[in-house]
Amino acid sequence: MSVKPKLTYFNGRGRMEPVRWLLAAAGVEFEEVFLETKEQYEKLIKDGVLMFQQVPLVEIDGMKLVQTRAILSYIAGKYNLYGKDLKERALIDMYVEGITDLMQMILVFPFSPPEAKEKNLDSIKERATDRYFPVFEKVLKQHGQDFLVGNKFSWADIQLIEAILAVEEKIPAVLSGFPQLQAFKKRMSNMPTIKKFLQPGSPRKPPPDECYVETVLKVFKK
């Protein structure tokens, strides 16, 4: 029996959430270890398991993987979610990088001071509706297929549905001008593994709250 991947991170979304999404979409069960104290984090560094003294950390296939992009690339390749050839992989990489740029704004939002939140929310809305979502709306409309690349479910589709739902939590009507993305969201949300991940009680984490922010700041405090 194969050993489940083990994920070490905070009990919240952060940089581990796309990893959880990818594994869940691939139908892979995993275990989680949550960082709650600075001592836990320092022990990981002392034990030499964090190559760059950073989490997330994913233990899979006898390896201790760090750096989110490397982790995601490995999982996508392992579970046949990374295209059929180099050209498809390049497209997936471009789409994923674009989505990651948008998600970076979501990632840092909970850590912004109260007086900056409204401005940062406006920036997220502007970037989503003017720069990122129009790209995927156009791609889906032009090729008329269900998925972004090669008419096959891939890492890019998983990253996009995660981003759509994350932005919608903050700006509920953000897809109002994007009919292709509305249909895409419905299709992806009804795929069995994703539907399961979206149900209560799944490993999907809720939006970051004050407790999550405080824990992260406490662990990384100099």
UniProtKB/TrEMBL annotation:
Family: Belongs to the GST superfamily. Alpha family.
An annotated Gene Ontology molecular function: glutathione transferase activity
InterPro entries for the chain: Glutathione-S-Trfase_C-like, Glutathione-S-Trfase_C_sf, Glutathione_S-Trfase, Glutathione_S-Trfase_N, GST_alpha, GST_C, GST_superfamily, Thioredoxin-like_sf
One of the GO BP terms on file: glutathione metabolic process
Record organism: Eurystomus gularis
Gene: Gsta3_0
Protein name in UniProt: glutathione transferase
Lineage: superkingdom: Eukaryota
Keyword Transferase among UniProt keywords: yes
Pfam families linked: GST_C_3 (PF14497), GST_N (PF02798)
Keywords, ordered alphabetically: Transferase
Domain GST N-terminal, chain residue ranges per copy: 3-83
